[in-house]
Each structure stands twice: as structure tokens, then as C-alpha cells.
Amino acid sequence: MHIQNSKLSQTTTQKAETASAQQLKEQKLQAESTDTVERVDFPEFVSGLIEGVFQANVETSIQQMEEYAELVGSVSQSVDEFSEANISEDPDREYLIKKDDDD
Q1: pLDDT, average across residues 55-76
Q2: Are residues 66 and 58 in contact, defined by beta-carbon separation less than 8 angstroms?
Q3: Which of 6, 14, 33, 93 has a Cα at 20 to 30 A from 22?
Q4: What is the structure's pLDDT at 62?
Q5: How many CB atoms lie within 10 A of CB 77?
Q6: Vertex 29: Cα angle to 46 and 34 (nearest 5)
Q7: Portion of the chain with pLDDT greater than 90, in percent
């Protein structure tokens, strides 16, 4: 019986030591987290984040408007102007040459 009580006492002591070590780790982690939060200038961080997102949205909108203006410009061209600017005869020639080689 004395041996069982001794083992039980050791197990209880080990559990208490493990719990105490865990508490120390948690306290250390909490202190490190608090230090990190205090070192970061949160208002400055948030302000920079919002400004960066806003600037990216503005730049994307400008790029989309420029592309849209180009599209509208292309659509408003005459068929001949569009053909000259966007269509070349080279692919047609290459296709015919390849077709003759295959036959």
C-alpha cells in the first residue's frame, strides 16, 4: 500500500510540475505577444493598410478605364481601319503554304 501511495504521490507531483511548466510557457508567450503589440504602431499600421488598399483600387480603376477607352476607340473605327490595325495577311499565307505542303 505504501508503494502505491508513493507512486500516486509521484504521479500527482509530475502532473503539477507539468501544469506549472505549461503555465510558465503560456505566461512567457503572453508577455512576448504583448511586447510585440506594443512595439507595433497600430494606428499607423491600419492607416497604411487602408491607404495601400485604396491606392491599389484607384490604380486598377484607372487601368480599366484606359483599357475601356482603347476598346471603345477600336470599336468606333471603320472596318478598314480596324483591319489595318489588327489583322495581318501573314497567318493566312502561312495557312495556305502549310495546306499546300500537306497535299
Answers
A1: 93
A2: no
A3: 6
A4: 98
A5: 13
A6: 35
A7: 23
How many angstroms separate the Cα of 78 from the Cα of each of 13, 64, 67, 87, 89?
A: 91, 24, 19, 13, 18
Q: Which residues contact 77 (CB under 8 A, 6 or more apart)?
A: 85
Sequence-distant (≥ 6) Cβ neighbours of residue 85 within 8 angstroms: 74, 77
Grid cell locating 50: 487602408
Phi-psi region of 40 (alpha: psi -120 to 50; beta: other; left: phi over 0): beta
**DSSP state letters, the chain:** -HHHHHHHHHHHHHHHHHHHHHHHHHHHHHHHHHHHHHHS-HHHHHHHHHHHHHHHHHHHHHHHHHHHHHHHHHHTS-HHHHHHHH--SHHHHHHHHHHHHH-
Cell triple for 46: 491600419
Does the pLDDT of residue 1 top 60, yes or no? no
3 — pLDDT class (breaks 50, 70, 90): low
